[in-house]
Amino acid sequence: MRTIILGNFDGVHLGHQALLRRARDVSAGDEVVAVTFETHPVGITRGEVPAQLTSALERERLLIAGGVRRVESLQVSEDLLRQTPHEFIEALAARLPFSNIVEGADFRFGCNRSGSVETLRQLGHQLGFQTVIVDEVDVTLHDGQVAAARSSMVRWLLARGRVADARVMLGRSHYVSGVVVEGARRGRQLGFPTANIAACDAVLPANGVYEVSVTDVDGTHWQGAASVGTNPTFGSCPRTLEVHMPTLPFESNLYGHVMRVSFTRWIREMIRFDSVETLVAQIARDCAKVVA
Questions:
Q1: Sign of dihedral through CA atoms 172, 267, 245, 58?
Q2: Residues 214 and 130 in one domain
Q3: Which residues contact 159 (CB under 8 A, 6 or more apart)?
Q4: Contact 161, 154 (CB under 8 A)
Q5: Which of 160-164, 222-226, 267-271, 288-292 has the lowest mean pLDDT?
Q6: Could you say which of 7, 101, 104, 196 would form a disulfide bridge with 183 (CB–CB 3.0 to 4.6 Å)?
Q7: CATH number for the domain including 124?
């Protein structure tokens, strides 16, 4: 028949990747399907969706790259969230018959998250499927602390600028994609032209300056320094993502290009400089770090 994994899978981090590997192992060559949600359920239960680590399209790409045959999305509604654990699994099995379900030890489902992995095992005995439980994946961060790989933990790390630790937990650099738009052209006037990335499809890390890698849709790749913040030296500005690529020719025109920006490491915090000259000197030092 088929093996399924069920969850939000935001970020497709190392914990999710462990589920994918186990699902492939138990499927015995049968189809592996990831079942996820069109929108995060807490958008209804709490009225606010957490900042997303990946767009729905990118999440699907990562899941398929991890070994699932396809991704099925469930439409989140109040009726769905009112279903008991038994009703939820029974409806899922009617829509997508499966012989195995692979989940993490902290998996919860059904109305008010009342179902646990033990509930899932009991339902498996009743409905005729096998429940396979995968232990949490612990990772060691750069400060020596050990933490379970979870989407909420990745968000916590990014909110503190700890992109190198997020990379450990994701198994890849955190990245965002967006369109290059025209900005105030201050970077060009200072001798460091930047690409202003708008409409980013995933959460940005904390304000600061980062080493990044940038990829255009045609696969062209650059190293760069990215500024996330409000440009405090120039007064009140909207929060933006600006990237300077030292090896990009000065007169290059990237407007309208879709760019992927991958955050490699934190360089420094976002601060207000007393003069433009001091800012320019600091930008030069920042750029030297990313091309060293």
A1: positive
A2: no
A3: 205, 206
A4: no
A5: 288-292
A6: 196
A7: 3.40.50.620
pLDDT of residue 40: 63
Cα–Cα distance measured from residue 153 to residue 1, given in angstroms and rounded to the nearest whole number = 34
- Cα–Cα distance measured from residue 218 to residue 57, given in angstroms and rounded to the nearest whole number: 18
**E strand or H helix at 123, and its extent?**
helix 117-127
Q: Are residues 32 and 124 in the same domain?
A: yes
Strands (E) in 66-127, as ranges, are 70-74, 100-104
Within a domain: 92: yes
Tokens coding 231: 């440009």
- As a whole number of angstroms, the distance between CA 228 and CA 240 comes to 6
Total residue count of the chain as it appears in this document = 292
Retrieve residue 5's tokens.
């994994």
Q: How many domains would you assign to the chain? A: 2
Q: Label the pairing between strands 2-6 and 100-104.
A: parallel
- Tell me the residue range of the domain where 75 lies: 2-136
210, 203 Cβ separation under 8 angstroms: no
- For residues 88 and 187, membership in a common domain is answered with no
